[in-house]
Specification:
Layout: E1 4-8, E2 11-15, H1 17-42, H2 52-71, H3 79-93, H4 107-136, H5 146-182, H6 190-218
Antiparallel strand pairs: 1-2
Length: 223
């Protein structure tokens, strides 16, 4: 719907719709953050939050609780990142409800997110355990398992990205086939299917990706 074609130095560069939608989702979240920030500044700290601020407070407290449970009490400072990640995933996964192609149906997007998780996992593994302790972990519990441990570590971003990508893309494909097959009568049936493929699957995959991110990174910290 919003695929962009650019001609630069005689070469045609096509920006896929899913990548354009990534920026649309980012703009939506930035606008939302600005609106919430302004509301917070105008609110008396002693007043009980209501309306939008109440919803945001509940969401933040939920993420804080999950971070504490999966990463430890001392890692509460990870809440902003996990909240941002979950917000991006949720809006992206639900984008199909608005007639857009979900950004997470593009493997480039899901792999990029998984690589961020992988990079953070390795960074904090080295930072908290030192190079020696980090490398020693690949020899546990037995030295001959080194190749399997390395493969297991490298498989994490692949499985993480494919799980999200596969579930969202399959929903997009199935819904497209149904719309094409049923034609004008599709609105009579598709709402129920949207509830499953877009809403249920979208929320579930957001939860799973966020949880695995916390578990992978949190494994490098002492609770």
């Amino acid at each position: 719907m919003f695929e962009i074609t650019l001609n630069l130095a005689g070469k045609e560069i096509v920006i896929p719709e899913t990548i354009v939608n990534v920026y649309i989702v980012a703009i939506i979240l930035i606008i939302f953050a600005v609106v919430v920030n302004r509301k917070i500044k105008k609110t008396n700290p002693n007043d009980i939050p209501s309306g939008l601020l109440n919803v945001v407070e509940v969401a933040v407290e939920l993420v804080q609780t999950l971070v504490k449970q999966n990463m430890g009490e001392k890692q509460i400072w990870f809440t902003p990142y996990i909240f941002t990640l979950a917000s991006f995933l949720l809006v992206s996964n639900l984008f199909g409800l608005l007639g857009f192609t979900p950004p997470t149906s593009d493997y480039n997007v899901t792999l990029s997110l998984a690589l961020i998780t992988f990079t953070l996992t390795q960074f904090y593994g080295i930072k908290n355990n030192g190079i020696g302790g980090y490398l020693k972990g690949f020899f546990d519990p037995l030295p001959f398992l080194l190749p399997l441990n390395i493969l297991g570590e490298l498989a994490n971003p692949i499985s993480l990205s494919f799980r999200l990508f596969g579930n969202i893309l399959s929903g997009v494909i199935i819904m497209s086939l149904i719309y094409n097959a049923l034609g004008l009568i599709s609105p009579l049936i598709t709402p129920v299917l949207h509830a499953y493929f877009d809403v249920f699957a979208g929320i579930l995959q957001t939860f799973i990706f966020s949880m695995l991110t916390m578990i992978f990174i949190g494994g490098n910290f002492d609770n």
